[in-house]
Amino acid sequence: MNSKKVAGEKAVEFIKDGMTIGLGTGTTTYYTIVKLAEKVKDGLKVKAISTSNKTTELAEKLGIEIVPFNEVDYVDLTIDGADEVDNLLNGIKGGGGALLYEKLVAMSSKKVIWVVDNSKKVHCLGRFPLPVEVVPFAYNQIFNKLEELKLNPEIRKRDSNYYLTDGQHYIIDLFLNKIEDPYKLEKTLKSIPGVVETGLFLQIANTVIVGNGDQVQIIEKS
Ligand code: 5RP
């Protein structure tokens, strides 16, 4: 069995009738959205908030109506993927480029569940390149600052162009290998003018559902 499918589908069991649900982005939440669409067809009523154009497209194609984020005051539950998760349930997100909207929706959520396969569990964050979303107007200045800080920046590209996020920003990936103090790094990055958001999601996830073959492990934040 596909580990991503097992984790993604399991999360749907947490969705109750009448909830406002944040839908994450990626290949694991794909399975969440497909399963949720089945339940919606069977009569489950939810309001869904999307974290990316890609997710909106998929959800709407499957018959899940997406409500604009500005039309809700809070989200009951957000289900999203992650690129790395440590033992404290801190993580790196943004491999799929949707970190800004993912963080905004997560921060308005009463509960956040991440769905991951076993390979995403780490002892220390940082092997996965840390995405930093920046304003295009100053990407060169921000890049130079990140280099000065020895954070090994690389501007993300798609084909031969700079990768453009749904919010019309660029992404600079930091190749760090190991993040000793994610809180300090988050503070440093956020203090650079033009940095819109980082892929460090600290103290945000309440629950992580890990798929491993046909097994699922549910880890609750202690
Ligand atoms: C997108 C994300 C994704 O949730 C993350 O990249 C995990 O994706 P996948 O489930 O495809 O491994 O943060 O911005």
From TrEMBL:
<feature type="binding site">
    <location>
        <position position="120"/>
    </location>
    <ligand>
        <name>substrate</name>
    </ligand>
</feature>
<comment type="similarity">
    <text>Belongs to the ribose 5-phosphate isomerase family.</text>
</comment>
<comment type="subunit">
    <text>Homodimer.</text>
</comment>
<feature type="binding site">
    <location>
        <begin position="25"/>
        <end position="28"/>
    </location>
    <ligand>
        <name>substrate</name>
    </ligand>
</feature>
<dbReference type="InterPro" id="IPR004788">
    <property type="entry name" value="Ribose5P_isomerase_type_A"/>
</dbReference>
<comment type="function">
    <text>Catalyzes the reversible conversion of ribose-5-phosphate to ribulose 5-phosphate.</text>
</comment>
<feature type="binding site">
    <location>
        <begin position="80"/>
        <end position="83"/>
    </location>
    <ligand>
        <name>substrate</name>
    </ligand>
</feature>
<dbReference type="GO" id="GO:0004751">
    <property type="term" value="F:ribose-5-phosphate isomerase activity"/>
</dbReference>
<feature type="binding site">
    <location>
        <begin position="93"/>
        <end position="96"/>
    </location>
    <ligand>
        <name>substrate</name>
    </ligand>
</feature>
<dbReference type="Pfam" id="PF06026">
    <property type="entry name" value="Rib_5-P_isom_A"/>
</dbReference>
<comment type="pathway">
    <text>Carbohydrate degradation; pentose phosphate pathway; D-ribose 5-phosphate from D-ribulose 5-phosphate (non-oxidative stage): step 1/1.</text>
</comment>
<keyword id="KW-0413">Isomerase</keyword>
<feature type="active site" description="Proton acceptor">
    <location>
        <position position="102"/>
    </location>
</feature>
<dbReference type="InterPro" id="IPR020672">
    <property type="entry name" value="Ribose5P_isomerase_typA_subgr"/>
</dbReference>
<protein>
    <recommendedName>
        <fullName>Ribose-5-phosphate isomerase A</fullName>
        <ecNumber>5.3.1.6</ecNumber>
    </recommendedName>
</protein>
